[in-house]
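Standup notes
- DV: blocked on the single-chain target, sequence here:
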Amino acid sequence: MKEGKISSEQLKSLIFSKIKSFNKDILVKPSIGEDCAVIDYGDYACVLSTDPITGAQKGAGTLAVHISCNDIASNGVKPIALMITIMVPPNSTEEDIERIMQEACEAAAELEVDIIGGHTEVTSAVNRPIISTTAIGKILKEKLITSAGAKLGDYVVLTKWAGLEGTAIIAADKEDELKSWLSADEISEAKTFMKNISVVKEGVLSAEFGVNSMHDVTEGGVLGAMWEIAESANSGIEVYIEDISVHPITLKICQKYNISPYKLISSGCMVITTPRGKELVKHLTNNKIKASIIGKITDGERCIIQNNHRLVLAPPDVDDLFKISYALT
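- DV (later): unblocked, structure below
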């Protein structure tokens, strides 16, 4: 099988088809494009999400915290707690574990999220550190936002730059290779993209503004997230690819490795749908979050519009990050 997330069709046939429902208190169940599970607790809903870090070496503890908390934010929820599992191979050192945990604790402190438990193990079942986190939040049920809430005519807004996370990971893990391609200042700047990985702020701000759906951009990149939000809403979508912001350093890195910034892992970006696209962009910009309209929800096909041509928007495939194979070195 290909490395990376399994395909949407594999998820449906191998995973979702096996899951049975037993409790009426489960408000949101597993589905394509849905970031979190939601459990009914009276007036409130408990929101949970879990994710592993497998494709990064440096900064993995930081990423592990943010990816799960970002999922929670896509429901308009500020995360309150986190559980973390760390599994490392036998050739690891105590310093490796301490570094991962220090990174995780610093990221959790930035978000004011409590780490409340987890598991740590040395095992020959892995050949590099694997970190998995589960984030927990709560929200009044009436304020809950899901990925499936996109409505016909909604504008699609993207925060920050496509390929944000992938750029930071590649710059950190492939620095020596990049020295002949990027300047020292460019490599240093690319590493700082890790500071922009959280989408908790825009998630909460957008929920307060009033939006129909949100979906944080992870594996599969911006194009993958666009397809998933349309799939979740059972709708069509138009993607204006020329309006997707890409940082010049990301473009250079993608050119070197012959990968696409639009299919590169992009934690730090949020896809948001609302009928008031321009107003939301202004609201986010006023709060120092870069945002732009990059598409629209339709009742037609799922397509990319580029140079006035309509191209098919395909389901997400293996993230372009894995094409570099750096994670196996």
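- Follow-up: The radius of gyration is 19 Å.
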